[in-house]
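Hey L., structure's done. Input below.
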Amino acid sequence: MLTLVYVLVLGGIFFLFIAAIGVVRMPDLYNRMHATSKAATLGVGLILVAVAVFYWDLSVAARALATLAFIVLTAPVAAHALGRAAYLSGVKPCEDTYIDELAGHYQKNHRLESVEVKPPAPDPSE
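Output:
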């Protein structure tokens, strides 16, 4: 049982380390957010599972799994909100980004226009 805890903690540390490297090495804000939201969520998740396994108590396991569920549900939403705020503030992606699919689709009030082609409205004179 203790070996499983060690493996889970080491796996969590590994992914947190990868997230830290991603923050330092990625070229722009958007790539850094991707590295932190994915790898850090997995790293924290593995450590929380290790805590639940180590204490082998229902109340500790319930709190650890509730915390894990909260992180898994909120990390993508937070990353999306930060990315959208950065984009609307004018933070440019790195030069290696090929396509800016949002360019020209935001209105003045920061609402995203639909990118699907709408059929023309029927002509009432016909």
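DSSP finds three helices and no strands in the chain. Residues 18 and 39 are 7 Å apart (CA to CA).

-- N.
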